[in-house]
Backbone:
């Protein structure tokens, strides 16, 4: 199975840079249906793009994203 990573833009007090984060095996083996998992990963990548950040900034919307995972205990939500 090919490893997947996403680029995370870090905006610190005096620096700006990218950090590439490997998607953990918990996402790969989360038990989510493939279409849901792939859609979620694509949504994260799109949100982290420079165009997305500019879109939020232009409209004065806070640049934040959250995901709510629900289900019975022990099903890999965390």
Residues:
């Amino acid at each position: 199975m090919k490893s997947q990573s996403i680029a995370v833009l870090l905006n610190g007090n005096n620096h700006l840079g990218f950090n590439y984060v490997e998607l953990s095996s918990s996402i790969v083996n989360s038990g989510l249906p493939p279409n849901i998992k792939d859609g979620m990963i694509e949504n994260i990548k799109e949100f982290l793009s420079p165009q997305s950040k500019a879109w939020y900034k232009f409209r004065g919307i806070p640049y934040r994203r959250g995901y709510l995972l629900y289900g019975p205990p022990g099903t890999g939500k965390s």
About this structure: The chain has three helices and two strands. Strands lie at 5-11, 16-22. The longest strand covers residues 5-11.
